[in-house]
Amino acid sequence: MRLNDCDPSFKHEIARQPGGEGIKTCFACAACTARCPVGSLKPEYDPRRLLRLAILGRREEVLSSPLIWLCCSCQNCSEVCPQDVRCTDVLTAIKNLAAAAGYAPPSGQAMARQLAAHGRLLEVGEFENDKRAELGLPPVSEQPGDYQALLGLKPEAPRPAGEGA
Amino acid sequence: MEALLFLGCTVPVRNLNYELSARKVAAHLGVELKDMAELGCCGYPLKAFDQETALLLAARALAQAGSTGLTVVPLCSSCAGTLNEAAHHLDHDPETRARVQDKLRPLGLEYRPGVRVRHLARYLLEEVGLKAIAQKITRPLNEFTFAPHYGCHLLKPSRVMVGFDDPEAPTSLARLIEVTGAQALDYRYLKECCGGGVLGADEDLAGRMAGRKLMELTQAAVTAMVVICPFCNVMFEGQQKTIAKKLGSEIKVPVVYLTQILGLAMGLSPDELGFRLNRVKPKELLAAFK
Amino acid sequence: MPRPTLCWVAAPGLEGLEPPALAMAAGLDLDQGGALEAAVVTVPEVQAPDKLRARLLGRPVQWLDLAAELGGGGEGHRGQRAAAALSRAAGRASLGTLPPLYSPQPNQRVLVAGQGLAALAAARQAALLGHPVLWALSGDDPAAAGAGEDASQVAGLAAGLPEGIELAPQTELTNLTGAGGSFTAWLKGPQGTARQRFGAVALAPGGAYRAEPAPPGLAPDLSRPLSACQPASLASAQGWRQVAILAGVGQPATAQGFARALATAYALQAQPGVQVTLLFREALVAAPQGERLYRQARQAGVLMARLGDGEPRLADQGRTLVWQDQVLAEDLELAPDVVFLCEETGAPWPGFLDNNLLWPARSRLLPEHARLDGGRTARAGFYVLGALRGTPAGEDRLAEAAAAVHDLHDLLGGGAAPLPAVRTLTCARCLTCVRVCPHGVPEHVEDHIQPAPAACLACGICAAECPAHAIAPPGWSTAELMEGLACGLAAAPAPAMVLMACGQSAMPAFAELSRSGHVWPAGLLVLPLKCAGRVGLELILRVLSLGAEGVLVAGCHEGMCRSVTGNLRARLATGQAAGTLSDLGLGPEAVSFLHMANNQPQALAKAVEAMYARLGAVE
Amino acid sequence: MHNRGPRRVGGCLEEIIFLSALDKPVLIIGGGVAGLAAALELDRRGLASLVVEKGPNLGGQARGFCCKALEVCARCGACRVGDLLQQAAQRPALGALTQALAVAAQRQGAGWEVTLIPQEGPKPTSPALALERPLGERLLVQTGAVILAVGHQVFDARKKSRLGYGRVPGVMTAGELEETLAKGGLPGQARRLAFVQCVGSRDQALGRLYCSRVCCGFALRLARLARYLEPGSEVTFFHMDVQDYGQAWRAELAEMRAGMRFIRAIPGEVRPGAGGPLAVFAGPDGQPQEEEFDLVVLATGLEPPVAAPALSEMFGLTPGAEGFLTGGQGVLVAGSAGGPRSIAESIESAAQAAASAAEHLVSGQAPSPEVAHA
Question: Which domain holds residue D187?
Fold first, then answer.
């Protein structure tokens, strides 16, 4: 890979994302790799490698990689990092950039629509509240109004996140 | 003692045994868990896609909850983690706070710094205290051994969960298990993640993450695994059969909620604690309470 | 022959011993306040009461740290050991040797040759301590800083030069002979070459930058030394987009060189449109602020490219660097607009040090030696400072210069240095002493050997090697040692063995063990030496001939001898002695050598016990 | 002690020594390597000093260090402590008060008046030297200059919980291994050794963003010594970068690289294994890997001395970089109290402190005893 063809601004772009500030300070000690529960089961997954690719500016390769979605956000890597990179947060920042670039799996949009419709991931209808009543639990209500405002989405005409507002 | 219950999305729909036992145990300990209808999603599901929006949703919940002045007590580790992180972020970063306030204002909401969020397990340990719990124990569970599953977001990131347990050598759940008289198992994969976070992206991987814990515990003489999070529960209980099939091995690990065994030890009946809804039944445990 | 008297000074560790009985056993008179011909005193000189010291002034005295030689055990056992030790001292005292009276005054002048922080600090400190200083500057300006030095720090120091410094601008040290207290320097200045005498010499060139060699094959127009990128804004002006900096790729840089590369990388990266890639093998961050610079550079966006073994390969007619990324395990390529080569500071060694006749090889003169710090060299009174020694610029150079000046002040003060006695009548002028002395003490002047007045450490190497027995540091002639040991061995119970203990390693360890109550074998006699180098083949064989059944020589670890080769010579002599014993059909195990340090008392105890057990088994 | 006389301070009788008058113009706080070296360097300049040590023995932390030579000196400098003690004992002008703590300081003209109190503590571990004297009573010392040589403290490895120190059997600090080796051998049947570098150094998360400088050399020499003492043992060296210690070191390092396994990765965790501590680290393929050792040795970094904040306040000093001490008017810092330093570097820095103190005595015109009385 020719560094001349890489995008040196990519690392800065990630660093501008909330939680992405730490990316440039990685000095590759591999403590994160050692503690990654995903890496230990998935040979091709190595958080340090993803960070390295991002630092080198291999923008498309990183954003389009299905691997970035495998971070289970367990925070082990952030805990062990001596440079306070907060690797989980950096990967979240990268995922956000990937989503904005259209690489996100469709589940994100689905969840946003669900929240706009119900204010919750799981719909609470009469069936659910009946079941709760049987157990003596108080009913649960849905308050989707605030969510629609914050998400910039209307429940009847759902639009994917990022496109609206 | 009063606290504000934060149910989140999953617990009130899918994990009624958790909610039931949590409410019962809290009441038994003299903690009044208040409900608030306006509380919805904590924002966690959107974090990977758009964390700014996720933060807004968390800030909304914190603003709502904050108006009560009570400690917010989520039952779900993801909710607890998200709300704690959001509160930490908002309290320490005035710029973000201002930006978020601008978005909340049209909704008639305002985030006031200093909202206290404590996962139920932490709340029980720190605010209620082991001593108070021990006083309520009437039926010690001496003959049982439980494997605690801490999960990730109860303890981490430790810079946010300041002053709580050491994520590298956690003891909080073990102490809550041992207060019932039962043994807490220390096992190899004790600290590992359930895999729930990647269930959507790679079901096979998530299954293997949960599977290695389940397989280890199948070998160990353990009454049940103790969880404190509905997502972890999905992996260990909900997916247990699927995982066993996929990995081609015998897996049989009963999964219970912390509050269920605390309730048993306090003399509540399995029915009151929703054991009917447990899918992998802790038969050995229930037999003792017939 | 004077009859020695025992002056018993009570000290911790001597409790329970009865001086009258010991005096009798050792053949000494007990001091009853009468006149003294010669004396054996049971404590070291520094611990003796002032009155006693005054009374003994000018008389032959054997100062004996008896407590340090005794060790623990029952009273009878300790009495036996004490009697043997006192007998040994009495034997030497009875010879009545006094230190030689010949003692020329060391020259107090100090020559500082060089320029920059180290030279300035050395000249200042020496002048403040009252030494007349000649500062031979390579240029004209005493405030000129060397490469890598903080110009304002140097200027600040130069602003308040104390009195007593004579400046010799544009002057070079072209030749040097002699040692502490008596150096002769040839100085070449604008008025020609002059020869002058000095007591001490500090060599402290300011130093210059040397760029790391470019990887062979790199397009020549691409590479520049690091200093050529000042100011950093040059990068924008030149339209550079991709800048590579090599910071220790052939061989690792130093921490100072690396820190400088980091600072430059940081400044360049801040220029709009510039991407800096820093290539290195190890991130050397031990310099002050090094780790902060490293992080700061990463934070600014400098790409850190760590190399595995070997230099980067070159492609595209030397215009593209290729290396394997350590994390990705795949090749990365970079076609830089410019390649900066990391620079280290250094200075060339002056030519006169190549004269092997007068100066030992450089590695002998300035070995990496834990005892030769603070600018010291093996040649007492000659100091190497700053860039020439590789000392980092800044506080470290000041510290080094301060330490060097304290050392020379001490040397020239005359208190510390004894003088070897040379018996001119028996001296064969074979120059063995000139050749073997690690400190350059003996000089051949007008057909006789003349020791430099402030350079001798009394290691005794010359005495051990002199074939004519013509030279010995005071109190350490073979005759003296033998007389003492003969008396000591006569008083020691069999089997008797002698420990020849180096004063830098074995003796302090032995003393520490003794004071903490270690029980030594009854027949063990200690011969405290300044340096194991005093031990030669002849000495060992003579001691065996006196009736000792074993000889253990204990000296410093290799590379730690204060006199550079004393321990190796002693080890060689021990091996030769063992060979001789074998040849005679005797057991070679009667002699052995132990490498040790002063903080390894257990090793010494083990070696003594092992040898004693062997001797006992032979009995 | 010369030139002393009782005087009344705040209602209680205190003893006062006029160090500034004649015999002891410089007070040295700390009797470790740097403190002793400073006293010796002052003595070589003809200046007297008084060393104040809070512990029962002179020599400091380095006194417990072991010689790391095989047959050839490793240039670790540990025996320099012995040299210093020996030289100090041979210089009768030197004085040292042990088990004495400086608790207050007041500026007096260009000098200082320092209050010392006796410090309760353990008994001396080795026989006292001629110059060591325990402080019996509260003491006021007037002095022209003060040298702070209080050394450093070692990072508490418990703060890096993931490396298992204090809870996983078989995990020890390099300092503890040093003590064990000083007694002559490896603990138990240790054959598989792992060294973990930068524990408490180069760590932004801990607020220790500096390299402790000495640990690479220290740990590798210990490792080599361990291999020498137990010829069958294998060493794995987990590190980030090996720091440079000069020309001879580079040659030695090449040899050590050949004889030991160097892994450029910091383990993520050390936990109990079946037969010893288990290190979890990234393998060369970027995969988590586990390996069992008999002994995991943590190279703990150097931290600012515990007393740094108190001393800074006493003498009105601005805290230096990373929390180490910096000097001020008539207050000089020597040794690792001013930043991570090796034994040799501490000795050299003591020379500089002594030189600066001497200059201060001349330029600062230390107070005369008459002034002190008034």
Answer: 155-301
